[in-house]
Amino acid sequence: CAHAGAGSVEMLRLLHEFGGKELLMRKTNLGWTCAHLAAQNGFFESLVMLHDLVGKEMLTMEQESGGTCAHFAAQDDHVEILRMLHEKCGKEVLLKVRRDGSTCVHDAAAEGRLQALRVLHELAGKELFLRQNANGLSCAHIAAQKGNLEVLRFLLDVGGKELALLVDKNGFSCAHKAAVFGNVEALQLLAEVGGKDLLMVTSEKQASCAFVAAEKGHVVALRFLLEVGGKELLMLAMKDGTTSAYVATQNGHAQALRLLCEVGGKELLMKVRT
User: Fold this and answer.
1) What is the pLDDT of residues 49-70, one digit of tens each?
2) What is the pLDDT of residues 204-217, one digit of tens each?
3) Which region, left, alpha or beta, applies to residue 240 given φ > 0 means left and ψ of -120 to 50 means alpha?
4) pTM confidence score
5) Are residues 63 and 97 in contact, defined by beta-carbon separation less than 8 angstroms?
6) Dihedral, CA atoms, 117, 119, 123, 128, nearest 10 degrees?
């Protein structure tokens, strides 16, 4: 019943009167409480009531995957709830992570919630924005992959080059994530902050962002990368010797191969794969 009454202060008060704290704190099979539902749907007054009836514990409980009220408020841009959670429970509630290591900032970045990101920065600071999940993904990786420029710009304003240069557990940078989806404007923004240092980052298997763009046939993205990184970036090869020209040829990306030949010439084409 408590879950059904998550949007009504009157219902919650009545349920508490007859079922007590235990009823309001009951979870579904996936660990959801009525507070989680209230946070997700923006029921501000319900959350305040739940805090008054049950206490701080009600607002900090985790569901099965580790999501909290703060995660759900952030992913749906309920900034007034984020402020209330901070006021009632302190900064710690905003720093909680899911089982996969994702923070409120990861959730907000994934959904493009700029206002939530601004509030989280105001309340929790830069520290939260530099956190990586269990796969090593930062909030900037997520924004770059999705090509959300407004969000990415804000994240880079907060985290600067330190954030831009973070790599995931496989060594992929934000530039790799933007390149694989051909997000040229995201690459331009990343290059402004991270410079050539960022574009020269290679993965554990030594794949560069130019290699990834060539593999996917993203000609416009590849042209930009070569303008900034030049022949030095182009000539980077995988550990096994596989070049950007090789994967462009393998995948039938003729325009990408032509561009690579114009910059790398015969020297690139003659590189041998081991």
Assistant:
1) 999 999 999 999 999 999 999 9
2) 999 999 999 999 99
3) alpha
4) 0.91
5) no
6) 0
